[in-house]
Amino acid sequence: MSIRTSLKKVLPPISVTEQEALDAGDVWIESSIYQGKPDMQALRDIPQAKLSAEEQAFMDGPVSELLGMIDDFELNNGDHIPQDVLDFLGKNRFFSMIIPKKFGGLEFSPYANSTIVATIAAKSGAIAVTVMVPNSLGPGELLMHYGTNEQQDYWLPRLADGRDIPCFALTSPEAGSDAGAIPDAAIVTKGEYNGEEVLGLRVSWDKRYITLAPIATVLGLAFKVFDPEQLLGDKLELGITCALLPKSHPGVELGNRHDPMGVRFYNGTTRGQDVFIPMDFIIGGQKNIGRGWQMLVSCLGAGRGISLPAMGVATAQSAFKGTVEYSFVREQFGVPIGRFEGIQEKMADIAGKTFLLEAMRVLTTEGLGLGVKPSVVTAIAKYHMTELGRDVMNSAMDIQAGKAIQRGPQNTLAGGYAALPIAITVEGANILTRNLMIFGQGAMRCHPYLKDMVDLIHSNESSADKEFNKVLRKTVGFSVKNAFRSFGKGYLPFLRGSESALPEVRKYEKRVNSISAKLAPLADLSLAVLGGDLKKAELLSARLGDVMSYLYGAMAAIRFYEQRIEDRKLALPYFEYAMQWSLQQADQAIVNFINNFPNTPTRGLMRLLTNTYSNSVAGISDELVRELSMASMQDNSVKAQLTHLVRVSPGDGNDINEQAFKAKHAVAHLLGKVQKALRKEPVVPFISFEHALNKLQEKGVVNAQEAAQLHDYNEKRKLAVRVDEYTFDMELLPASQTLKAVDGGQNAA
Fold first, then answer.
1. What's the CA gap between 550 and 527, in Å, rounded?
2. Which is a Pfam family this sequence falls into (predicted)?
3. CA atoms 306, 308, 310, 312: torsion sign
């Protein structure tokens, strides 16, 4: 019995949906990470993505105008998105960023798409979701790649200008992640359409969680097709199929809503019972029956790397901006709270992860801009960028404390905090993405021979044994090289190369190369020992996926620091934190993987090959935490670059915080003079800062102009540290009215 035949009996079969998912998408720089040789030159050679003149004009025009129309607090306290906002989105083609210009679309780059969605998300999660869905997985994308000419010519112009609003229905109560279990079914039959008897499908479905369904005018629908009368051939089950149904079509039910965390985007259900549709409704026509899952997974890759990661970055930038500004202005015990080490630990984490998130956003969209659809990279982006956004937001909530939990227009965190679980959940729940997709798909796509081996194992061709043996020899050679590379770089630091011209980057690039070299033999040994059971060992495979993911993040941070930072001296603590945190997580994942590997001899070999004998992993120093937290409270170009997605509107919470932040920086030298004078000769009783300041002016410590500056700062400070108040019947009181209350500013100096 041949080796191939023996393996065929042991390995579990791959389902059709699994095979189509594995075949979907392209391989990009993640392949070099998996193979133990991160391609830093290819990373540095990627063309920099920038907004075109047309894209910048859209940002400066329609996007800015839209932000001025949005009152997110009022929106989330109401029931509906205002009709004028929906009309504005349609009229200005916000729903057509991916649709080609020849059909009336904007045809923007992935980088522009991400920047627009993220900028809107920093203002309103509900409006961002409304914009992102038509520009991600949905009828537009499917029509562009698979629609017939007639379908494209009819639907794409209507989707582009907002005449039609699309949704796409995949998830049902009985099938979420397991698409192969979709119970929604269609029977091939004949029926009447437009007064004629035609061949078509009689479809029944029950779908939920469908974004835009309550207001959609056209429904994309996924279902299984069966042909019991064999009208199309001799097969009974034809597979998952995608169709496009107008809302006006008889039997289509759209309208009921869900309430996702009180965030007022439209999300709901669609149902139909024995609805007859002609073959023309199938996306791509009758020939595409059974190709639906392949179509979906092929299109999902790009969208997964844009929209939800953009929300994660927007959440982080908004939280970063509000928190560092508040921490600089808010004082306790006579000093800004940003100088307390407990606060500094959280602030440094916020700042470093925000840097990492923006770097990953830029790199991922630059890759998509090359025309590739890297399914593994986009899964990494979706999972880790939404999770990092959640980490940053939770730290911001901890720092702002009472201010963060009082809802109102002045709260810059509440909207993003409520929307976070949505990004974690949709387009594949994050647990699924981490535990099944990143390494599971990554191993098959990034290994140079594994996919061929699996295909040959399950092949029925007569030449399969001979071809398999060739591939097996190559695989063994590949694994041996990986083992020697890991051993050498693990024990001999001089073998860890670096191509960077910057000394502060070289040490981290060497660590990236070393950790990547360890990943390759760990993956090889796991596949050799566990085989198909590795798919079931989710805790183990997830950790290997984590190593890939954090190395991808580290590579993104290197590229961002080298190519997009103008003042590297100011940005250095951000970069160092992002790198140290990412590499620390990768190291920890390796330690946990080896410690939990079920085969003792293999575990020992893994330790030997990777020089991993200790559970200790290098952490981030307190010195770097203090340095970065203090740097983050400075008003400089790095802070501006890492908060560029947050657009400030006059009078909103961000505006209030920013005005106080800038005002304090402007009078910092005067506050020092005031503090020194008060220590030398205290004002007793200290009724208020204003009272003390007036006394100091009388004594000539500050002149009239300086006193005016300080009074102006103090008024802005008082407004920034206050929260929204309501009457007993929950009527919102103007901030100016609440400031007439007792001044709580004794510690303003």
1. 21
2. Acyl-CoA_dh_1
3. negative
Residue 150 in any domain: the answer is yes
Only one residue has tokens 């200290």, namely 686
Q: Which of 218, 188, 211, 203 is nearest to 127 (CA)?
A: 211
Residue 282 has pLDDT above 90, yes or no: yes
Tokens at residue 20, please?
Answer: 């189509």
Rounded CA separation 297/293 (Å) = 6
Residue 684 DSSP one-character state: S
CB 224 within 8 Å of CB 185: yes
Q: What is the pLDDT of residues 108-154, one digit of tens each?
A: 999 999 999 999 999 999 999 999 989 987 788 899 999 999 999 99
Q: Is 225 helix (H, G, I), strand (E, B) or coil?
A: strand
Please tell me whether residues 625 and 584 are part of one structural domain. Answer: yes
Residue with tokens 């402007």: 666
| Distances from the Cα of 368 to the Cα of 373, 388, 734, angstroms | 6, 21, 46
Cβ-based neighbours of 465, under 8 Å, separated by 6 or more: 2, 4, 5
Q: How far apart are the first and last CA of the chain?
A: 84
**Radius of gyration, alpha carbons of the chain:** 29
Domain boundary among 376, 394, 428: 428
Q: Parallel, antiparallel, or unpaired: how do β-strands 218-226 and 166-169 relate?
A: parallel
pLDDT tens for each residue of 299-322: 776 678 999 999 999 999 999 999
Choose, from 387, 427, 509, 706, the residue flagged as catalytic.
Answer: 427
Residue 356 lies in a domain: yes
Neighbour tally for 212: CB within 10 Å: 23
User: Looking at per-residue confidence, does 5 or 89 come out higher?
Assistant: 89
Sign of CA dihedral 511, 515, 516, 518: positive
Nearest to 376 by CA among 312, 302, 451: 302
d(CA 664, CA 325): 10
CA distances from 227 to 189, 203, 235 (A): 8, 12, 7
Cβ proximity of 241 and 225 under 8 Å: yes
CA 93, 95, 97, 100 dihedral sign is negative
Contact 284, 291 (CB under 8 A): yes
**Closest C-alpha among 158, 168, 324, 136 to residue 254:** 168
**Mean pLDDT of the 380-384 span:** 94
Q: What is the 8-class DSSP label of residue 250?
A: T
DSSP character at residue 533: G
> 238, 272, 296 — which closes off a domain?
296
Eight-state DSSP code of residue 515? H
In a domain, 31, yes or no: no
Q: How many angstroms separate the CA atoms of 640 and 638, rounded?
A: 5
Instruction: Give the pair of three-digit tokens for residue 355.
Output: 């840097």
Considering the domain architecture, whether residues 513 and 549 belong to the same structural domain is answered as: yes
- Asked whether the beta carbons of 293 and 367 are under 8 A apart, the reply is no
Q: What is the dihedral of CA 659, 662, 666, 671, to 10 degrees?
A: 80
Cα(640)–Cα(643) distance, integer angstroms: 5
Torsion of CA 263, 264, 265, 268, to 10 degrees: 90
Give dist(CA 265, CA 421) in Å, integer: 14
Query: Which domain does 225 fall in, by range?
Result: 166-296
Catalytic site residue 427? Answer: yes
Q: Where are the alpha helices (DSSP H) in 447-502?
A: 450-457, 464-491
Residues in the chain: 749
504-557 residue pLDDT tens: 999 999 999 999 999 999 998 988 888 777 778 889 999 999 999 999 999 999
Tokens of 285: 């026509």
How many whole angstroms separate alpha carbon 139 and alpha carbon 133? Answer: 10
User: Contact 724/408 with Cβ under 8 angstroms?
Assistant: yes
Q: By the 8 A CB rule, do 226 and 187 touch?
A: yes
The CA distance from 32 to 162, in Å, is 42
* pLDDT band for position 11 (cuts 50, 70, 90): low
